[in-house]
Each structure stands twice: as structure tokens, then as C-alpha cells.
Design goal:
Layout: H1 3-24, E1 31-36, H2 44-59, E2 68-73, H3 79-91, E3 96-99, H4 102-111, E4 117-123, E5 141-147, H5 151-162, E6 168-174, H6 180-191, E7 197-203, H7 206-217, E8 222-226, H8 230-234, H9 236-245, E9 250-252, H10 255-259, E10 264-267, H11 270-285, E11 302-306, H12 307-312, H13 319-324, E12 327-329
Parallel strand pairs: 1-2, 1-3, 3-4, 4-5, 6-7, 6-8, 8-9, 9-10, 11-12
Antiparallel strand pairs: 10-11
Helix pairs in contact: 2-11, 3-4, 5-6, 7-9
Length: about 325
């Protein structure tokens, strides 16, 4: 064999070695995520959350349906459904589970103390005993906080600024929602100043909501404060219709209430948290323990106002409020 032919053959073989080595490596296992969600599968809000999570994973190099499988459980609006769905997902032995209400996290903690749990859209996780600290969460739980109790005071503040005549407000909260206690304390502290009478009621279904809203509407100069809860999200169209029918100024915990015709929203971006959660899922896939992932708190809060709804209610939004609004729907 001529020398240059030998060298050329050797170079070709060397170039093929990396390909051969990669071909001999075992394929990476498909990772698995479980997701517990309050919304029904075809709800527009659920679809936005799914899309945001997928976008976050894809940005980090994970391909849903190919390198990562996601098992969803939708329409979880009560504790029994949360427990059953948590048990179903734990039985699938996923690498990590995402959940976004205290009831879901509680159900998951009862079902497993080993599978990592990442929560989104949570509120005050220390008071709710989800974790023992923010910088170094305990056990197998970490995540992203969307609400903190003082937000409730801001809801009442904005409601009375937009509708100064309000003398009484119905606080609509989901039944057996542990987050409500902190919100109520914040409201009571603020309400003592403007002297707004607060009437709080727990609701479990649509009939509860109709009765509560109709009762408060019998009093003049009343308003509505809706706490975050699975039942409020599921019945948001009904709540918005009742507020319009009874001409009740209302403030809501999620932006999608306002885009659907509600008067006002103040809070953080809940959809973005699903995108952010993908970063914690990625780090857990790569070996980080949940206790080494600090709880993330919201850093930006938005105010959205529906001027069409304000006009229908006979309200003139003060220029000072419009000036700080992040979104004005006309």
C-alpha cells in the first residue's frame, strides 16, 4: 500500500470513530413529568399554561413528546379529585410533578416524599406548611409563588379608588381554601381605614356563587372581591355575568377575568410562571434536589382595567389609576 493511501485511510477511520462511539452510546431515557391543573383540558387558560410550559422546556432543549413525556390531570377543583389524581400520577413514577394549588401540593406530599414536586401559582407556602423556608425548601417541594397575603389589601384599595362609594364588599372565596386566611387578614387590616364592611362567604358550586352575589347586591354601594380558587376559575364566566347584571364593581385575581369582561385585575403574570417552572424541571432532570432550588417570589405586578365594563357600571376611572395601569382594555 502506498504511504499516502495508508494515511488517507487512517484519517477516514479516525473521522468515523466519533460517529461510531456515539452510535454505541445507549439512548437517553425519555423523561417524564406529571401535571395537576384546575382547568378543564379544553379551557383556553389551560391551553395557555400547557403552551408556556412546552415553550420553556423547548428553550432548554427538551422536546415534549420526544425527549420528555407529560402526563396531565385536568379539572381538579376539589380535595378528593386532587388526592385521586395525585395517586394516579405518583403511580406513573414521573421524574417531577407540577401542581398549582395548596390542595394539590398537600395531596402530593401525602402520596410521595421522594418524587420532586414543583408548585406554580402558590400563595404563602410557609404559612400553609408546604415548605419550612424560602431559600432552602424542605423535603421534596419547591416552586413559584404568585400571591402573597398583602395583595388582598391592594385589591380593596384599587376597588375603592375606582368606585369610591363602595361601603360593603363581598369576599368570594373557594371552600376549604387554606390561602384565604392570609388574604382575609390583609383585607381586614386595610378595611378598617376606609370603613368598608366586608362580608366573606365560601362557595363550592355555581348555585353558591349565585346566592352570595344576589345577596350582596341587595345592599346599595356594594362591590365584589374574588379570591383565587379553583371554583372561581372554573366559574369565572358566571361571576363576571353576575357582577354585570347586579352592577357590582369587582376586582379579580387573574388577568383572564378582565379580558373576559371583568372590571379590574391586579397581580402577577400566572402564565409566565409555567414558562419559568420549566427551568426548575430542567435542573431537577439534571440532578438538582428540590431543597437546593429556592422558592421564587413575583417581582412584577400588573394592573389591568376594562374601561368598557367601567362605563357600563357608570364608573369614571380616576386619571391617577389609569396612569399606573399596565393594560387598559377599551
Amino acid at each position: 500500500m502506498k504511504r499516502r493511501d495508508f494515511i488517507a485511510g487512517l484519517a477516514g477511520a479516525a473521522a468515523a470513530w466519533p460517529l461510531a462511539a456515539r452510535a454505541q452510546q445507549p439512548p437517553q431515557p425519555v423523561r417524564r413529568i406529571g401535571v395537576l391543573m384546575t382547568n378543564a383540558e379544553h379551557d383556553s387558560e389551560a391551553q395557555q399554561r400547557v403552551k408556556a410550559l412546552n415553550q420553556g422546556l423547548e428553550k432548554l432543549g427538551w422536546a415534549p413528546g420526544r425527549t420528555v413525556r407529560i402526563d396531565y390531570r385536568f379539572a381538579i377543583v376539589d380535595a378528593d379529585r386532587a388526592r385521586n389524581s395525585a395517586a394516579e400520577l405518583v403511580a406513573l413514577a414521573p421524574d417531577v410533578i407540577l401542581a398549582h394549588t395548596p390542595a394539590m401540593v398537600a395531596a402530593l406530599k401525602q402520596a410521595t416524599d421522594t418524587i420532586p414536586i414543583v408548585f406554580v401559582q402558590a400563595s404563602d407556602p410557609i404559612s400553609l406548611r408546604v415548605v419550612t423556608g424560602l431559600s432552602h425548601p424542605s423535603g421534596n417541594v419547591t416552586g413559584f409563588v404568585l400571591f402573597e397575603p398583602s395583595l388582598a389589601g391592594k385589591w380593596l384599595q384599587f376597588l375603592t379608588e375606582v368606585s369610591p362609594r363602595i361601603a360593603r364588599a363581598l369576599v368570594l372565596q373557594g371552600a376549604a381554601n387554606p390561602s384565604s386566611e392570609g388574604f382575609l387578614r390583609s383585607l381586614q387590616a386595610v378595611a378598617s381605614s376606609p370603613r368598608v364592611i366586608l362580608e366573606s362567604t365560601e362557595v363550592r358550586d355555581a348555585s353558591d356563587i349565585e346566592r352570595a352575589v344576589s345577596a350582596i347586591a341587595a345592599h346599595p354601594d356594594s362591590g365584589l372581591i374574588v379570591f383565587p380558587s379553583p371554583i372561581a376559575t372554573a366559574q369565572r364566566d358566571l361571576i363576571i355575568r353576575l357582577a354585570a347584571r347586579h352592577r357590582l364593581p369587582a376586582v379579580y385575581p387573574f388577568r383572564f377575568f378582565v379580558t373576559a369582561g371583568g372590571l379590574m385585575f391586579y397581580g402577577a403574570n400566572n402564565i409566565d410562571q409555567w414558562r419559568q417552572a420549566a427551568s426548575y424541571v430542567d435542573r431537577i432532570f439534571l440532578g438538582t434536589h428540590p431543597r437546593d432550588l429556592p422558592i421564587q417570589l413575583p417581582t412584577k405586578f400588573d394592573l389591568a382595567i376594562n374601561l368598557k365594563t367601567a362605563k357600563a357600571l357608570g364608573l369614571e376611572v380616576p386619571p391617577t389609576v389609569l396612569a399606573i395601569a399596565d393594560e387598559v382594555i377599551e
